[in-house]
C-alpha cells in the first residue's frame, strides 16, 4: 500500500485510498503541476501468474485507451513502473456502477435503459470503427458507471479483470458468463474461443440491457434470457424484440453492427405491437459517491454535498487551467482541460464554449503563421455534436452550447445545413438565444439552398441587421459578432446582383457597426478582439465601397468619393494588419515569410492601387506597387504577383499613350524606363516566368530591354499616330 502524501513520478500526490479489488488498490491523486485530480491504480508485480495476467491486461487496456476520444470511454494518461509496482493513472470518474444501482433499486425504467443503451452502443460503434477494430467483449452492469449528471461511462478494458480465484467459475478469458456470447466459450473443447467480432459485443450489450430493464441477472437461475415481458408485461414489446435479436445464439441472426442497433433503439416504439406513449417519469437525483472507472462497489465516505463542492471546484479549476494554457497558445493542453470539465459536468456551457473556441483560435493562429494546426476543428464539432445526440448531461437542451456549435458551423465551417440544424434545436422562447437563433436559422437555410432567391437572403440579412441595431446595446459583444457576420454576407453578395443595389444598405449598416464599436467599453471584448472586429469591418467596407463606385461610374464625382472611402479603409486595414504582425514576434510581413498576413496585405495593396487608378491618380497607384515590392522583395510567395501586376499596369499606361511598343523608347522614354526597371527587378523573383500575367508581357519587354525595338527619333516622328487607322492594326507585343 502506498502512503498518503507519496508523490509518484514527481507529479502525482496520493491523497487517499478510495477502493480495493483483488490484486489492486485505487487511490485518489492530485497532479501537482496541473492541480487536477486523477485516479491511480496500484498493481504489485509479485511474479505470480495472476499478476502477470493482470499486467498483460493492463498493457492491453493502455494501448486501447490512449487513442480513444469518445464521451462514454475513459482514458489512461500515464503508466509508472516504480520498484516493482505498476501505477496506472487514469480519468477520475464520480458515480455508481449500474450494478450498484441494480442492487439498491432493482430494474430501471425502460426509457432510461434505452438512453443508456444508445450511449453504450455509440461507444461500441466507435471502438469497432477504430483501426484496427477493438472488440470490448465484457459488457456487463458492473463495467458501466453512472455519472452524477446521468450519463454513462464504459470501463474495464483489461485491467479491471481481476481474475480473483474465488470468481474463476464466473469469468472466461474473454468475458463474463451470463453476459458473454456463445462464441466466447468456443466448442466443447474450447476451440474457436477467439472467433469474436462486433456482433459479440452486441450480444453482451443485449444481455446487459436485459438485466437492467428486468432486474434479473442472467448469471443466476434460470440462467437464460427470456422475453422481458414475461417478467414485466408493462414493458415495450419493441424493446423486447431488440433484446431478443441482440442475444440470438447465431451471430448472423443478431444486428450486424451497432449502427443498426442504435437505429432500432431510437425507434423501439415503432417496433411495439401496441405501444402507447407514456409520460416519462422524472428521474430522481442520483446519489453521488466517489468511484473509479476500474472499481465497482467500493466508494469513499464523502457525502453528496461534499462531492458537489469537489465537483464544482474541479470543474472551475479545469476551466482556469485550460484558459491559462490557451493564453500561452498551448491549445492542445488547453482543450484537454476543457474536455475534462465537459466529462465532469456535461450540463454547463462554459467548458463547451471554451473547448470550441480553443480549436477555432488554434486553427486561426496556425493559418496566420502559415503552419499546419495540430488541432482539427471538425474533431471538436464532432465531439460536441456527439454529446448533444447522446444527451450527455442534458446538453441537448443547453441553448448556449447549441448556439456556439451552430454559429461555428455557420461562420467557421460554412456548413449552413448543420448550422440550421442546431439553431433549430434552440427553444424560440429562450430569452437570450431564441430570437437570434431564429434569424440565423432562416439565413442558414437560405445560404444552404442553391435555388433560393438572392433577394430573399438580402431581405433576411437586412431584417437581422435592423434587429441587431435595435435590440443590443453598444456594450454587448453579441452585437459586434452579429455585425461581423452580417458584414461577411453583405461583402460576399454585394456584387452578385447590381439591380438590387444592396451596397448602399450594406455601407449604412457597416458604417453603423464601426460607429457602435467606437463606443464599446465593455469587458467581453479585450483590446485585441476590438481591433480584430475593426479589421473585419474594414475588410467588408472596402469591398462594399469599391462596388458602390463601380455602380456609379456615370457620375465621376460620386464614384471617386466611393473610391476614396475604399482607399481610406484599405489604409486602416493595412495599419491594423501591421499592428497585428508587430505584436507577434513569430510572424513577419514580406521577405521570405509564409503566413496569411502576406496574402491579406497583397490583396489590400492591389485594391488600393486599383482604386487610385480608377480615380486617374497614376502616381499614387505606382507608389502603392513600389511600396508592396519593397515589403515583399523577391523571395516571398507573393513577390511574383506584385511584380507582374506592377509590370502589367505600367505596360497598360504605355499602351494608352502609344499602342506600338516599337515607339515607346522614343516617344515615352521615362515611362518605358520605369517599365524596363520593373522587368529587370522582377526577373530576380524565383519562378516568375510561371506567372501568366508576367509571361504574357515577357517577350515584348525582353525586346524593349535588348533594344530590338529601337528606332531613330526621326523614324518615330514619321511613324503613324497612335490613334490612326494604321496604328490600330499593330498587335500588342509585336
UniProtKB/TrEMBL annotation:
Composition bias of kind Polar residues appears in 725-734
The enzyme's main class, written as a single word, is transferase
**Segments passing through the bilayer:** 283-304
Q: Where are the TPR repeats?
A: 315-348
Signal peptide positions are none
Q: Which residues bind ATP?
A: 41
Question: GO MF terms on file?
Answer: ATP binding; protein serine/threonine kinase activity
Residue ranges, annotated region (Disordered)? 706-734
What InterPro entries does the entry give? Kinase-like_dom_sf, Prot_kinase_dom, Protein_kinase_ATP_BS, Ser/Thr_kinase_AS, TPR_rpt
UniProt keyword annotations, A-Z: ATP-binding, Kinase, Membrane, Nucleotide-binding, Serine/threonine-protein kinase, TPR repeat, Transferase, Transmembrane, Transmembrane helix
Where does the Protein kinase domain lie? 12-271
- List the EC numbers from the record: 2.7.11.1
User: Mind telling me which PANTHER family this protein's record contains?
Assistant: MITOGEN-ACTIVATED PROTEIN KINASE KINASE KINASE 20-RELATED (PTHR43289), SERINE_THREONINE-PROTEIN KINASE NEKL-3 (PTHR43289:SF6)
This protein's name: non-specific serine/threonine protein kinase
Organism of provenance:
Wujia chipingensis
